[in-house]
Amino acid sequence: MGCDNFRYKRILLKLSGEVLAGDKSFGIDFDAVAKISKEIVEVAQHGIQIAMVVGGGNIFRGSQAAAVGMDRPQADYMGMLATVINALALQDNLERLGLPTRVQTAVNMQEIAEPFIRRRALRHLEKGRVVIFAAGTGSPYFSTDTAASLRAAEVGADCLLKATKVEGIYDKDPMKYEDAKKLSFVTYLEALSKQLKIMDATAFSLCMENSIPIIVFDILQEGNLKRLLIDGEPIGTLVSARGGVVVMAVDRKILKDMRESMKKAVEHFKSEMVGIRAGRAHPALVENIKADYYGVPTPIKQMGTISIPEPRQILISLWDKTAIKAVEKAIQASQLGVMPQVDGENIRITLPELTKERRVELSRLVKKFAEEARIAIRNIRREVLDELRRQEKEGEISEDELKRLQQEVQDITDEYIEMVNKILEEKEKEILEG
Ligand code: UDP
After folding, report:
1. With contact defined as beta carbons under 8 Å apart, do 224 and 39 qualify?
2. Which of 86, 184, 237, 298 has an alpha carbon within 20 to 30 A of 313's alpha carbon?
């Protein structure tokens, strides 16, 4: 299970208590937990290393109890215990789905979970186990967001995913303003100056100081985690020092689309090659020729079996022998330029030897098709490079990232050109020797 293609290979996923409560205002919604667990399992199966921090707000929030007179540290201890309850619920769900997990708590409760030991957590991650960090930082006056930033830094996570119930960060309150726009990217400094309240200041500054990008996204939207981590789609809002990282997520998509387009160009070239008749017989030469069958033009491949008994021969054996005449006529009328012979109940086509001139002509033709395919591939490359250069100019990606991506684009281009060359080589061999 390699995950070299993914931008974020080790992530820290922060789940607030609110998310685990689903539609409820208090406690655990097991449907919501099951849904989220399924998504986590899916990305873990791709080899992404997942550490998690869970909140406890769905059960108990220290600050709220303190506000009505409770001793704050005491209230916070209760809050930390709430996170452990959530962590255990999540662990149970993930393990029922077959994903190995470990819960590590910042407050010792060894009968229930491992204590937090960084090195051990790292080993678990390397072994593909999901590590759920519970009990926050272990100290009162902190939040689980701070615990998430801290653990993200400690385990060297590539990003902190802050799972929420909203799509991302908006330029203004979407509840109040209809024209509020979701931002796909903000810098740490913008987030601070605009007071976007992504996390509390302690949590936020820990991420900023350690250059850990934060992605705020809606985890209740099905498939989002996979889209973000595996497909590289720009889901949610990314907070980082500069735009590069978010575009990196988009870039994966650009590269993926580029591959798709190049693949299509190669497929097209392949289909052209099949149509070019060298000396050698191939079912593709006749299978799509349509013959009249009870008034319906029907491809031969749907009317019988096509075999190649000899390198230069095609044998069509029809299921309904009464159609023989119609098929014979259709082949005669086709571009194939051959005379079919009715041989008992079958139709036999013998391809004539190619003349030397014809071979040269055909080889020129396939070279022309190959060049067209290569041009198509290079055009796709040009478009992608133009787009990447635009992104760099507008500060969305850094110069280094541009360079790295340009290299990657070139490697992919070479790969597809090589495919065209291979197909061409084989076809030429067939034409000249076949
Ligand atoms: N808490 C704490 N120290 C920590 C993390 C959490 O004391 O390092 C307590 C605090 O009382 C907090 C509660 O645990 O209110 C639940 O965490 P939080 O409110 O961050 O959960 P969330 O909002 O993510 O559900």
Report:
1. yes
2. 298
- Could you report the per-residue pLDDT of 370-405, keeping only the tens digit for each? 999 999 999 999 999 999 998 888 777 777 778 888
- Contacts of 322-327 with CB under 8 Å at 24 or more apart are 323/291, 323/293, 326/291, 326/292, 326/293, 327/291, 327/300, 327/303
| Ligand 1 center from residue 145 Cα (angstroms) | 8
What mean pLDDT value characterizes the chain? 90
Phi-psi region of 164 (alpha: psi -120 to 50; beta: other; left: phi over 0): beta
Count of beta carbons in the 10 Å neighbourhood of residue 22 = 19
- Residue 183 β-bridge partners: 169
Distance CA 21, CA 86 (A): 10
Share of the chain above pLDDT 70, in %: 95
Nearest CA to ligand 1 atom 13: 79
What letter represents residue 142's amino acid? F
**Spatial CA neighbour of 412 closest among 224, 265, 296, 311:** 265
**Residue to probe by mutation, ligand 1, list 14, 64, 76, most atoms within 8 Å of CB:** 76
Print burial letters for 366-386: b (CB count within 10 Å at least 16), e (below 16). Answer: beebbeebbebbeebbeebbe
Task: Find the 135 Cα to ligand 1 centroid distance in Å.
Answer: 8
Q: CA 132, CA 116: separation in Å to the nearest integer?
A: 10
* pLDDT tens-digit map of 58-102: 999 999 999 999 999 999 999 999 999 999 999 999 999 999 999
Parallel/antiparallel/unpaired status of strands 159-164 and 10-15: parallel
Can you give the pTM of this predicted structure? 0.62
Tokens of 218: 């809606």
User: How many Å apart are CA 157 and CA 12, to the nearest integer?
Assistant: 6
Amino acid at 183: L
